[in-house]
Amino acid sequence: MKKLGSSLLVAIIAGTITLGAYKLFFESPKYAVIKDDSSSFNTSYTPTSPKGAGINELDFTSAAETTVNAVVHVKNVTLNQGPTNIMEFFYGSQRSQQPQVGTGSGVIISQDGHIVTNNHVIENATQLQVTLNNNKTYDAELIGTDPNSDIALIKIEAEKKLPYLAFADSDNIKVGEWVLAVGNPFSLTSTVTAGIVSAKARALGRIDQSFIQTDAAVNPGNSGGALVNTNGDLVGINTAITSQTGSYVGYSFAVPSNIARKVVEDIMEYGNVQKGILGITTPSLNTPYAVENGFNEIDGIYVDSVEEDSGAQDAGLKNGDVIKKIDNIKVRKFADLTGYLSTKRPKDTVSVTIDRGGDIEIVPVILKQRQVIILPELGIEVKNLTEEDKKIFKTENGVKITGVPERFRGYGLKNKVIIGLDGKDIDDIQKAKTLFGAISRYGKTSITMLNKDGEKERLILQ
Fold first, then answer.
1. CA-CA distance, 43 to 419, in Å (whole number)?
2. Contact assessment for residue 393 and residue 445, using Cβ atoms and an 8 Å cutoff
3. Residue of 150, 233, 266, 336 marked catalytic
4. What is the pTM of this model?
5. With contact defined as beta carbons under 8 Å apart, do 302 and 327 qualify?
6. What is the DSSP code string of 148-164?
7. What angle do CA 110, 112, 118 make, to 5 degrees?
8. Mean pLDDT computed over every residue of the chain
9. Mean pLDDT throughout 169-189?
10. 20 to 30 A Cα–Cα from 228, which one of 53, 258, 417, 428?
């Protein structure tokens, strides 16, 4: 009897569990939310992806696999002066030179071995070596550099065609878009990190810079590596981080691919960078003057002045104009404008949309070469000679001094023409920049100038 009762009890429990499981898993329940007014509604349960939502829907593997084979490890060797010993101190013997090794990354951009990297990765190098993802190492040749954009072009001679990345159109990337950073941080080869585009047209302390900002992890050694989208398209060259420690803290910056491509093409075709400028100045937005006049609230680029003999002057741009667009690119800050212009050359024509007193006008502007620069070391502002200047000073070559820093105010230099430095002729501002950039801080420097009477003068600096 007891045995029969136990069996019945087990049967009842089993039946209850079975019925509960059926109700729970096989019947479609309808839930209701009860409100104070006794009204109710039925909830809807939409099936979700088995992968989940958001980042899990993305597949980075194809882009990573394509990119790692086109990103290389760049090693440069520079020679630095070693510490002075007691014999050198007393007898003045030459210091020994000690090799110092620096590392970075690079991106193969052609099958024949052209590689783009950062200028600061290869700067002052006496020897360059490139290691591919398959661990093969080659000596590299420096083709050219552009310190302003921090882009350099090097080349290796490989036995067979190399995997490479083609430049994409960086103007098409959007804030919030997923990107991958590929490089060699801390000499850890073929490292891939993911993040999003945090901002575009970032300037880091200089008005002529325009970077893509991302939150993909970038550390020392990533410089010169690839920033690609999820299709594996090259949208930037990783260049810098903002950090108080020197390591990644959430902000990294890349040169947009459109700028890098234009620099590389100029180096290969002309040997240097051909930069077309608009020829305007705009007030700094972080000044009381800008706040007082409301410049910091303007949606666009306020034209504060127009440079003489510039494309902007020829096109009739005026003080007070507000630039809203250039070609089809909307501009809200100066870095938007300079970033786009960095992809253009002298003699290119751009359409500038301006707001002039409430009227919208579209003005074609032919870009020109920069006419004014600040000379390295001395800080003197000079400009190329106009046809009128050539007549007045009776010379075809030289640069005119238009601005003088405080330390040279007493020399009467302004409005004179520099025609030579240490016996070498100066033709234009580019030649002047090169020669003055090579001035030694030791010894004498002789500057040959012309005054308005056509008389030669010499200034000796020590």
1. 83
2. no
3. 150
4. 0.71
5. no
6. TTTEEEEEE--SS----
7. 55
8. 82
9. 91
10. 53
**CA distances for 355 relative to 138, 260, 261, 323, 328, angstroms:** 54, 31, 32, 6, 15
Triad 438, 441, 443: Cα angle to 5°: 100
At 164, list the tokens. Answer: 């490479």
Beta-ladder partners of 365: 350
CB-CB contact of 49 with 98 (8 Å): no
Q: Is 369 left (phi over 0), alpha (psi -120 to 50) or beta?
A: beta
Q: What is the rounded CA–CA span in Å between residue 89 and residue 85?
A: 6
Among residues 170, 198, 210, 223, the one annotated as catalytic is 223
Tell me, yes or no, if 73 is annotated catalytic.
no
Structure tokens at 175: 């804030």
C-alpha pair distances (Å), 250 with each of 194, 217, 254: 12, 7, 14
> What's the pLDDT tens digit per position in 60-70?
999 999 899 99
223 catalytic, yes or no?
yes
Closest CA to 203 of 333, 96, 98: 333
The number of beta carbons lying within 10 Å of the beta carbon of residue 344 is 19
Sign of CA dihedral 388, 389, 394, 396: negative
Which of 120, 208, 243, 355 is flagged as catalytic? 120
Q: What is the pLDDT of residue 34?
A: 27
208 is catalytic: no
Write the Ramachandran bin of 442: left for phi over 0, alpha for psi from -120 to 50, otherwise beta. Answer: beta
Q: Which amino acid is at 262?
A: K
Residues in the chain: 462
Going by the DSSP 8-state scheme, the letter that residue 126 receives in this structure is S
Grouping H, G, I as helix, E, B as strand and the rest as coil, residue 75 is: strand
Radius of gyration of the chain (CA): 32
